[in-house]
Specification:
Helix content is 50%, strand content 7%. By secondary structure, the chain is of the alpha+beta class. It has one domain: Beta Polymerase, domain 2 (2-Layer Sandwich), CATH 3.30.460.40. A 4-stranded mixed beta sheet has the order 1-2-4-3. A two-stranded antiparallel sheet has the order 5-6. A hairpin with a 2-residue loop joins strand 3 and strand 4. The chain is globular, with a radius of gyration of 21 Å. The protein starts with a helix and ends with a helix. About 2% of the residues have low confidence.
């Protein structure tokens, strides 16, 4: 049985809910006993503002302390996102003057393009995509805007998809910016995807106040990037944050008529397999299921075991439980995890030797880690 707190959080991991879903949310809330820990878990998964919004709409009566904590979280994220937006305006203006093409990624783009209120979508870094030839210059311009923005040493090869994190304190908030020259690391995705490799026209979104606009990835590229990011960051030592689920499900629902689903099926089948699994966390609409031709099977075993109330800890922390338990969890993950990580969806049969393939994957990752340590 799913943990009642996580089940409630998962149902709220979306922007729009219909009356039937609000009834499910109210029923799930009635099963929660330990309300005092709920705000911490909601914050850890990045869904605290959405969570509070949906509980209010569903007519759920919250304990006073829990309500105050969720309200404070919503206000904090709203103010933080206003600061992030002003910073992005300054960066876009400076880059446009310098002739640098830039696309905003993930939270800062989605909070304006997708969410009805920017504060509903918490974010960490400002992630920006530029061409590889412009990356160093883009990082230098951040220094002119008051950021501590490290540059690679002359002749040093940048192994990661982004340069070092640029940090500034703005109006009491710590703002960090990552300049990406590719969307993915080698080994994470078969396609690195730079700004010149995009397959769909970029989408524009406003940056209030005023008439300045920024751009992000197009419909199909955005959905694929979100799914690939979710799957790539769902390792055997970390679980998927529910805010990523909310991004994917809400984007697919909101732009269902604009997305070229035939091209998604041909070019980005991972999107369909991922959506078919997320359906069991927060149900997809009949319209989306039909328009995208998403095949839905049965809920894979271990779904709720693998998605704990709060994201899993990093490897070093997991090792505190003992090497035996840690490595058993690594080499024998749940069927849910295997289906998500290897793009199988919920309706495809499980390949016979998938666990052996997974063991080879882990061995490869370990070998790469040892080689990197040896080079250092």
């Amino acid at each position: 049985m799913p943990d009642p707190i996580y089940r409630l959080l998962a149902l709220c991991a979306r922007i729009d809910c219909d009356a039937a879903l609000y009834r499910q949310i109210a029923q799930a809330a009635a099963q929660v006993i330990e309300w005092e820990v709920v705000p911490t878990h909601a914050e850890a998964h990045g869904v605290a503002p959405l969570f509070y919004r949906h509980l209010t709409a569903a007519g759920v009566t919250l304990p006073r302390a829990v309500k105050r904590e969720l309200q404070a979280s919503a206000v904090r994220h709203r103010l933080a996102n206003q600061v992030h937006t002003r910073v992005l305006r300054d960066i876009v203006t400076r880059y446009q003057a310098a002739g640098i093409r830039v696309l905003a990624l993930k939270g800062i783009a989605l909070c304006h393009l997708l969410y009805p209120e920017p504060g509903l979508r918490p974010m960490g870094d400002l992630d920006l995509l530029v061409s590889e030839k412009d990356a160093a210059r883009a990082q230098s311009l951040l220094s002119e805007l008051g950021f501590s923005a490290p540059l690679p040493a002359d002749g040093q090869r940048v192994e990661h998809r982004h340069l070092g994190q640029a940090i500034a304190q703005v109006e009491g908030f710590i703002v960090s910016v990552e300049i990406h020259h590719h969307l993915f690391e080698r080994g994470v995705s078969p396609i690195l995807m730079g700004i010149d490799d995009l397959t769909s026209a970029p989408l524009a979104f406003p940056l209030p106040p005023g008439d300045l606009t920024a751009q992000t990835l197009g419909y199909e590229d955005t959905l694929w990037y979100q799914c690939q990011h979710l799957v790539g960051d769902t390792t055997v030592f970390s679980a998927t944050k529910l805010i990523w689920v909310a991004d994917i499900v809400s984007f697919a629902e909101r732009f269902v008529a604009a997305i070229d689903w035939a091209r998604i099926k041909k070019q980005y089948p991972l999107v369909l397999s991922t959506l078919s699994l997320l359906h069991f966390l927060t149900p997809l609409s009949d319209r989306l299921l039909a328009r995208a031709s998403i095949a839905i099977g049965s809920a894979p075993p271990g779904m709720w075991d693998d998605f704990a109330k709060s994201p899993r800890t990093i490897l070093d922390d997991q090792m505190n439980r003992g090497y035996g338990q840690t490595w058993r969890a690594a080499f024998s993950p749940s069927e849910w995890w295997l289906r998500l990580r290897y793009g199988l969806g919920s309706a495809s049969p499980l390949p016979r030797f998938l666990r052996a393939r997974h063991a080879l994957y882990l061995a490869g990752r370990l070998n790469n880690a040892l080689r990197r340590r040896w080079r250092r």
